Amino acid sequence: MQSSLFASAEPQRFMLQGGELTLYPQWVSERKACSLFRWLEKSLAWEQSVIQIYGRPVVIPRLNAWYGDPGCNYQYSGYRLPLNAWLDPLSEIRTRLHDELGVETNSVLANLYRDGQDSVGWHSDDEPELGQNPVIASLSLGGERRFSFRHRRDKTMPPLHLTLTPGSLLVMSGAVQHNWHHCLPKSRKVTAPRINLTYRKVVTV
Ligand SMILES: O=C(O)CCC(=O)C(=O)O
Ligand SMILES: [Fe+2]
């Protein structure tokens, strides 16, 4: 399935077995998405982390940075990201997620895909510190990218391909992380960098 670029700002819902995705195509205006992108690109504590895959060091093909409440520690693939204190524009989005959508978070993982060669491979956000069935709210800024889901076990389930446009918010909830993997593939068609803010709730603070 391929989502089209909706002119309407109506949320789109996708029922995935055991979970749900809600895509708000224009959660942030184009103008605001643009200024936020520029500010985040120059202001966040970006680093290119080195993770462990099958015991070997791998330099991730993107930059990332971690912000959150004190004690919100987050580790993936054997690497613990340094925790940074909230910056106002990041906490403003956190407050809006809570007030408008009832999504409670205490941290945010920012990703910067510098070009089409930057990516994130198939994974699910199922680290123990996020608890069972986490709600993850993901804001896209900058260049548009494709984002795909495939079932973790049942290969007969059709994959889902979304296009994440600047200003769009994707909320993943229910058993999405338990049942599905997601990825942001490399692409030769990409012409602009992208920043993604994935708001999360670390439950083992
Ligand atoms: O860039 C994205 O939209 C998603 C990134 C992601 O899946 C992650 O940080 O866990
Ligand atoms: Fe993820």
From TrEMBL:
Q: Does the keyword Iron-sulfur apply?
A: no
Which residues are listed for substrate binding in this entry? Y74, Q75, Y76, D126
Q: Write down the Pfam families for this protein, in alphabetical order.
A: 2OG-FeII_Oxy_2
Please tell me where 2-oxoglutarate binds in this chain: N111, Y113, H123, H182, R194, T198, R200
Q: What domain of life is recorded for the organism? A: Bacteria
Keywords of the record, alphabetical order, are:
Dioxygenase, DNA damage, DNA repair, Iron, Magnesium, Metal-binding, Oxidoreductase
* Gene Ontology terms, MF aspect: broad specificity oxidative DNA demethylase activity; cytosine C-5 DNA demethylase activity; ferrous iron binding
Q: Which residues form the Fe2OG dioxygenase domain?
A: 104-203
Cofactors (names) = Fe(2+)
GO biological process terms on file: DNA alkylation repair
> What's the protein here called?
Alpha-ketoglutarate-dependent dioxygenase AlkB
